[in-house]
Amino acid sequence: MTRPVASTDAIDAKAPTSTEVGAFVIVRHGQTEWSASGRHTGVTDIPLTPEGERQAASLRGALTQFDFGYTSASPRRRAWRTADLAGIADPQIDPDLAEWDYGTYEGMTREEIRRARPDWTIWTGTPVGGESAEEVEARARRVIERLLPTLRAGKDAIVFTHGHFSRVLATVWLALPTTAGVHLLLDPATVSILTEDRGDRVVARWNSPSAEARAATD
C-alpha cells in the first residue's frame, strides 16, 4: 500500500515529483467568519474575511513555480476569490468542487450537532438532509478523472476548494476509505500536493502554509 509522506513545511520550493505525472495541487480557501468560528459551511456562499484575503494573496508566490495546464475552482466565492487573489485568473468553475452539503447542520458547530447526536462525525454520519460520504466521494472521483489527462501529459493541475472536500480528494487519490479523511487536518489558505512516485500515488505536501504565513509564526 502506498505510504504517504506528509509535510507541513512552507511551500517555498516545488515539491519533488515523479517525471511520470505533474503535480495535483489542492488549495483550501482562505478564512471566513464561519471557518474561524468552527461552523460547518457547505452551500452558504459567504465571503473571505480581510484576514482570509490576506492569506489568499500570500499564496501567490508559492504557486508561480508550477506549470498549470488545468485550473479549477468551486463555485463558492470564498474559493474562486482565493484563486483570484493567489494569482490564478479565470479558473474553470466546477460544481463538483463544492463543499460537502451539510443539510440541516449548515452553520452549526460540531458541539451543537453533538447535543442531538453525541457520537456524530461528518465521516461516519450523513447530515440530516445533506450528502452522504458516498455522494461526496463520487464527486471527488469525477474531479480527478477530469484532471488526470493533464497530469499524464506532465503538466500540473490546481483546484481551489474546501476543507472536507479536499480531504476526500486525498483519500480518493490514495485509494483509502473516505473515513480516512478524519486524519488529514487542513487549515485555511494552505497548499497540498498529490502526485505519483514510481507509479505509486503519494502525498508530497499536506497542509502547507505560504512561506510568508510560516515566517509570521516562527
Description:
This protein is α/β, with parallel strands linked by helices and 218 residues long. It is built from 8 helices and 6 strands, in the order βαααβαβααβαββα. A hairpin with a 2-residue loop joins strand 5 and strand 6 (200-208). It has a single domain (24-217), classed as Rossmann fold (3-Layer(aba) Sandwich), CATH 3.40.50. The longest helix has 20 residues, at 133-152. The N and C termini lie far apart (35 Å). 32% of the residues lie in helices and 16% in strands. Strands 3-2-4-1-5-6 form a 6-stranded mixed β-sheet. This is Putative phosphoglycerate mutase. Substrate binds at residues 41-42, 78, 99-102. The active site is at 29 (tele-phosphohistidine intermediate), 99 (proton donor/acceptor). GO terms for molecular function: protein histidine phosphatase activity. One of its GO terms (biological process) is regulation of phosphorelay signal transduction system.
Keywords:
PGM_Phosphatase; 6-stranded mixed sheet; Rossmann fold; 8 helices; 218 residues; Putative phosphoglycerate mutase; His_Pase_superF_clade-1; alpha/beta; globular
